[in-house]
Amino acid sequence: MAGTVKTHNLSGRENIPLFRVVLHEPQIPPNTGNIIRLCANTGCALHLIEPLGFTLNEPKLRRAGLDYAELSAVTVHPDFESFLQTEKPERLFSFSTKHRKTPGSAGFCSRDVLVFGSETRGLPARIRDAVPENRRVVIPMRTDSRSLNLSNAVAVAVYEGWRQLGYPGAHKTI
Fold it and tell me: What CATH number labels 6-164?
């Protein structure tokens, strides 16, 4: 698959995603499965940057995502540069324990791109540094903590962004 951008399981739902969530070299199938489910439930598109630590038909990935894979768009890119070329994002936000801005002060807009690193290595410095300083986000936690689980971090970011936008597309009045 290297060198090829491949989209899986297009849902046929609304063509414009709330956000585009990017996972750079994710390694743990259940985390990505949970994020597929999150994206299906919030109207986000998911982009995976290779190499992946699993295959998309991995049982643990499918179990965590349950039947939600059919309800979300998952696109695999051979590298981050390919993602940038293909998607041409206007606004990137990087998430890292190395940043200072909190999600509540980030000022998200529809179709923003939220970029997260792998579970063990985080987001590479070259990607963190390519994002403007005012879009480098950290999710606060206790000073004696190392990091959040990747799927939890993505959920915090997506729901804070959705809250800032007034929950467009939500099925209940909030």
Answer: 3.40.1280.10
